[in-house]
Amino acid sequence: MKKKLLAFLLAAVCAVGAIPAATVAEVPVRVEAATKKAPSINKVYSAVKKAYGSDYLPSVRLKKDEIKTRFGISSSWYSSAIAEMPMISAHVDTLVIVKAKNADSKTKIKKALVDYRKSLIKDTSQYPMNQLKIQASKVYVKGSYVCFFMLGTLDAKEQEQEESKVIAAYKKLNDKAVRAVKKLYK
After folding, report:
1. Is the Cβ–Cβ distance between 96 and 83 less than 8 Å?
2. Tens digits of per-residue pLDDT, 42-95?
3. CA distances to 43, 67, 97 from 171, in Å
């Protein structure tokens, strides 16, 4: 009951705009309390992948040691994890779904993914076409799951807009994954 009240109060504060925009913009992390039994990681993965259809580009699933190397997430922190990236290095689309073992592990996983996101943004060797997509990437927490979303494609016309509009469009694409996960908890 206390968790639901806390989640409600947090949502109310966010809705009123009490959190400074600069803070939210620096690290876009959404934390939501679970309202029912958590779905399996395969259901979460399938729902996200289905939300993108043919625009889902990640095709290579990473192993535990690769997840540790790339994202800094120890296998001792989670009960299950799925991480996929595209086979072609010119694309940056990435999906990471991690089911934390406990609250302490969830905090560690979230920090590792936020740090990963920040390192991508600072990496000046990125393809120029990917820089705005990287800035729109999102770390999302729901129940015991911690996710990293950098998914979706824009058509050529959308990519020719000013930078802030392109970033906003990529953020909307990442929200598809957020909605897919939320739907599993209803």
Report:
1. yes
2. 999 999 999 999 999 999 999 999 999 999 999 999 999 999 998 887 789 999
3. 23, 24, 18
DSSP class of 185: T
Closest CA to 179 of 51, 55, 93: 51
Mind listing the pLDDT tens digit for each residue in 151-172? 999 988 888 888 999 999 999 9
Long-range contacts formed by 70-78: CB under 8 A, 24+ apart: 70/116, 71/96, 71/112, 71/113, 71/116, 71/148, 72/112, 72/115, 72/116, 73/98, 73/108, 73/109, 73/112, 73/113, 74/108, 76/101, 76/105, 77/101, 77/105, 77/108, 77/109, 78/105, 78/109
d(CA 158, CA 90): 19
The CA distance from 93 to 87, in Å, is: 10
Cα(2)–Cα(162) distance, rounded to whole angstroms? Answer: 44
**DSSP line for 48-74:** HHHHHGGG----EEPPHHHHHHHH---
C-alpha distances out from residue 12 to 23, 31, 140, Å: 17, 13, 18
